[in-house]
Each structure stands twice: as C-alpha cells, then as structure tokens.
Amino acid sequence: MLVPDPKVVRQLLTRYATLRIAQAERQTPAVDRELEDVTRRLCVTMGTAGIHDAVARADDLLVRARTDRRRSPEADGESGLSLAV
C-alpha cells in the first residue's frame, strides 16, 4: 500500500480546517465548492469514503511520521553511515 506524503496530508488538513472555518463564518458558493474539492482530495489521498475517517487516518499518519522522524539517525544528527573505514 502506498503511504501518502505527510507534507501533502498536512497541507490538505490545513486547507480543510481553514475552509471549514470560512464556511462557518460566511458561507459562500465559492467556499462550498473549494471545501467539497478539498474534502474529496483528502478522502482519496487517505483511501476513505468519508471525511471523518480521512481526518482520523491523516492524524494517525502525521503522528507516525513525527515518531519515525524522532527515531531516525538524522534526528540525532547522524547520517546513519558507518564511521568504519
């Protein structure tokens, strides 16, 4: 299974949240269309049929990516290459 790029997922989640706020403040056809588009893209990216599942999976993916990054040798300032010659 392909794993979405966490940066792309983060951007989609941010845009989704921004549009939900904009829709709550002042609902317009343009915001509605863009929210529908971002919702669809987030669902497709996360492999879900509904936005609630997509957001939950996206959150899980971002938590795992953050945890993996902390465990990587690069996080400790190391390249992961052996110093032996």
TrEMBL record:
Classification lineage: Bacteria, Bacillati, Actinomycetota, Actinomycetes, Kitasatosporales
Any Pfam family the entry gives: DUF5133
Superkingdom of the organism of origin: Bacteria
Name recorded for this polypeptide: DUF5133 domain-containing protein
